[in-house]
Design brief:
The chain is an alpha+beta fold and 744 residues long. It is built from eleven helices and 48 strands. Helix 8 packs antiparallel against helix 10 and helix 9 crosses helix 10.
Length: 744
């Protein structure tokens, strides 16, 4: 009996040891990883081991996240599953990574690397913290093969999708056959770079969805990118060999983009608190996102019924099919072009059609002239970053976005515009008459209402104002000042009070206009000046009773009075903190591209330090005389913050300064301001100074300034720290973060 217990105990120990991950990230010659053993990357982020998909008993070798092992980002033997748990992975005699079937001792998968120098390669395989499995020649360190070059259905930060426009060779994602079978499915996703680069998915080779052209900042066919900020730090670049690359820089949040078995592209971000993946964006999102939904020369609008209409100047190719909701045959031109005297119909807020041909130009009128000269040109559009875009032959996959997008100009016969002018005149007359009639009726109704209300209602309004604001008060205060702060108990102004304070909203009191309307200066009965304005960031963060985070500091929201004193305006996106609150989170990121702090753009986390980041951008913009969103140094491939960091870090800060103010007499003061700006745009919010410290730095109360760390998003593809080390750039949320303006 004792012997039996000893044997059972020994078997249990062997089983436990076998199940443990090998404390190494490398497979060397002679090392065999047997199912269920695994290896993990150095920082314990990724794991290489065997797994079984749901609803099956097949086993596969794959790479997954250690904290979410069901999230498999790469599969080796996707087409040749193992039927039991006898599999293993090792290095073969010729240096390849191989997966072996323990039952038959057959190789079911191999990296298949061959060299002309020697049939035997001394190699080693390593799992990196990026999730990349790399096979290297041990003596030279040369990379022989990597899993990033043969992706399955998922792209992670650091991975690259590419297409060679000369050979057509692609590195693309390919969906699983279904949720239980990683075998090659119907859908693939990758970069289409034969014209203007764009992302696309294909259904067995046929176009299924496309992102629209890449303009250097956004994809013009993804509606959400126009609102503020979705993926401004994704890179689309090319090299001399004809390869175009789409990549996601490495970052400190866990994020994936994948194509699933139904053809949807999903962007997921890991929620470390809830321990789950949140789907933050998907495409196609609706029927209109499906490629060519309305056929050639058709336009799709998801909010209309039916969703498909023919472009102006075109009619359905098959009336019966069109009425039945079958739009695949599209539309045809009513009147043929004459290549002389033709005109253009402007379609606003469009997803531009596929097959655009670019022509760099800084003037939009040049697009029209060029298109008119070419009889095969049937449409054109203009984007400030791309220039002119032209179309010939057909217009396919056009969509009406409704409120954002690109203006598309369709070439029509001159005769198409004759009847249009008459109809337009009738419409204008009808609208004008209707407006006059409605205005008269509204005025009569208003007059009766005013007469009926009488003086009693007027007195109650004045009484309400008097209860909240005493005539001898010197500041606007909250009611129940001695009680605990209640965010809902904010001061209220009646319309009559505002009208009186602004002299009936006279133009002389108009300070400026923002996204939420005009901003007026007002004077209360007690002489207190008010203005949608505060006493600056210090007042917002510290001096006011409730801490206010502005969330949209930018040049257009800083107004100047007659004495050139700056006033912060436009609080339509501000958030109020009460009690001991120091930060907040939001699922809807609002703001302006170029001024968002990385932690806010990526994860919706905002605090005082996110306002300080925006303030740092403003400092650098003032010094350079350029807007962050519009500046790019072609020679160094750097944007504004990256250029400021590089020049200051190299002790050449004066080269960053706008020429009209750059001189040796004020060099020390200017360099100090650059350093303060860089301190405010540091990547980690904890490293950024508070507003009080910034004011002390600017006033000279603090003489010695700390050395700033590497700022976020300082370069296009990588960042270089003070020590000279190079690492991948942290990239935003808005990798595919939805950013929608939402007035409160």
């Amino acid at each position: 009996m004792t012997v039996v217990k000893s044997i059972l105990l020994l078997l249990l120990i062997i089983q436990i040891v076998a199940c443990l991950s090998i404390e190494n990230d490398t497979i060397s010659t002679g090392v065999v990883i047997k199912d269920p053993q695994s290896i993990t990357s150095q920082k314990q982020i990724f794991k290489l081991g065997f797994f079984t998909p749901p609803n099956t008993t097949n086993r596969y070798l794959g790479i997954s996240f250690t904290f979410s092992q069901e999230t498999v980002v790469w599969v080796a033997n996707r087409d040749t599953p193992l039927t039991d748990s006898s599999g293993s992975v090792t290095l073969s005699r010729d240096g390849n990574i191989v997966v072996l079937d323990g039952t038959t001792n057959q190789t079911v998968w191999s990296t298949n690397i061959t060299t002309t120098t020697s049939p035997v390669i001394n190699s080693t395989a390593q799992l990196l913290d990026t999730g990349n499995l790399v096979l290297r020649e041990e003596d030279t360190g040369d990379v022989l093969w990597e899993s990033f070059s043969e992706p399955t259905d998922v792209i992670v930060p650091g991975m690259t999708l590419s297409q060679n426009v000369k050979t057509g060779k692609m590195v693309a994602l390919s969906a699983w056959k279904n949720a239980s079978d990683p075998q090659l499915g119907r859908f693939t996703a990758g970069l289409d770079a034969f014209s203007i680069p764009q992302l696309a998915t294909w259904d067995e080779g046929r176009p299924h969805w496309r992102s629209g052209p890449w303009n250097g900042l956004i994809f013009l066919g993804i509606k959400e990118m126009f609102y503020a900020y979705l993926d401004g730090f994704t890179q689309v670049t090319n090299d001399s060999a004809g390869n175009f690359f789409y990549s996601k820089p490495q970052e400190n949040v866990y994020i994936t983009a994948s194509v699933n078995s139904t053809g949807h592209v999903l962007r997921k971000v890991w929620d470390g608190v809830a321990k789950r993946w949140n789907v933050e964006w998907t495409a196609p999102e609706n029927e209109c996102d499906v490629y060519g939904k309305c056929g050639a020369f058709g336009s799709c609008n998801v909010v209309k019924s039916p969703i498909c209409t023919c472009l102006r100047g075109f009619e359905p190719g098959n009336e019966d099919e069109w009425r039945r909701g079958n739009w695949t045959n599209g539309c045809r031109r009513r009147k043929q072009l004459q290549c002389g005297g033709d005109g253009f119909e402007r379609l606003r807020y469009m997803k531009v059609p596929d097959f655009a041909k670019p022509l760099p130009s800084r003037v939009q009128d040049e697009c029209r002239t060029t298109c008119l000269r070419n009889c095969s040109c049937i449409a054109y559009a203009y984007d400030g970053n791309i220039g002119c875009m032209f179309w010939s032959d057909t217009l396919i996959d056009t969509q009406d976005f409704g409120s954002v997008g690109v203006d598309l100009y369709i070439r029509l016969s001159a005769s198409e515009f004759d009847g249009h002018k008459e109809r337009k005149l009738y419409i204008i007359i009808g609208v004008a008459v209707g407006f006059v009639c409605i205005s008269i009726l509204m005025f009569i109704a208003w007059w009766f209402i005013v007469k009926r209300k009488g003086s009693q209602a007027q007195d109650s309004i004045i009484l309400e104002a008097g209860q909240m604001f005493t005539t001898d008060s010197t500041a606007i205060v909250l009611r129940n000042e001695s009680n605990e702060v209640n965010i809902g108990e904010l001061p209220k102004f009646t319309f009559k009070m505002l009208a009186k304070a602004t002299n009936q909203f006279h133009e002389d009191n108009l300070l400026g206009r923002g996204g939420f309307g005009p901003v007026y200066k007002g004077v209360l009965a007690n002489g207190k000046e008010i203005a949608g304005i505060a006493r600056g960031i210090l007042y917002l963060h510290r001096d006011s009773r409730l801490r206010i985070i502005h969330r949209d500091l930018k040049p257009s929201n800083v107004l100047l009075d007659q004495d050139w004193n700056p006033k912060i305006s436009d609080f339509g996106m501000a958030r109020i903190f009460g009690g001991n609150e120091e930060h907040g989170n939001t699922a809807r990121v609002v703001g302006t591209y170029g001024y968002m702090a990385p932690e806010y753009g990526m994860g919706g986390r905002f605090s005082e330090k996110s306002d300080l980041y925006s303030f740092g951008v403003l400092i650098l913009e003032i010094i350079k005389g350029k807007k962050n969103t519009h500046y790019f140094n072609d020679e160094l491939s750097l944007r504004l913050i990256g250029y400021a960091w590089k020049m200051w870090n190299e002790g050449n800060g004066l080269s960053f300064v706008e020429e009209s103010i750059a001189n040796r007499e004020t060099e020390e003061e200017i360099i100090r301001c650059i350093q303060i700006g860089l301190l405010c745009v540091q990547e980690n919010p904890k490293d950024r100074p508070s507003v009080e410290i910034v004011l002390s730095m600017l006033s000279g109360d603090i003489v010695e300034l700390p050395v700033p760390n590497q700022p976020a998003f300082s370069e296009n593809g990588s960042t270089t720290g003070p020590s000279g080390s190079t690492h991948q750039n942290v990239f935003s949320s808005n990798e595919l973060t939805l950013s929608v303006l939402d007035g409160r």
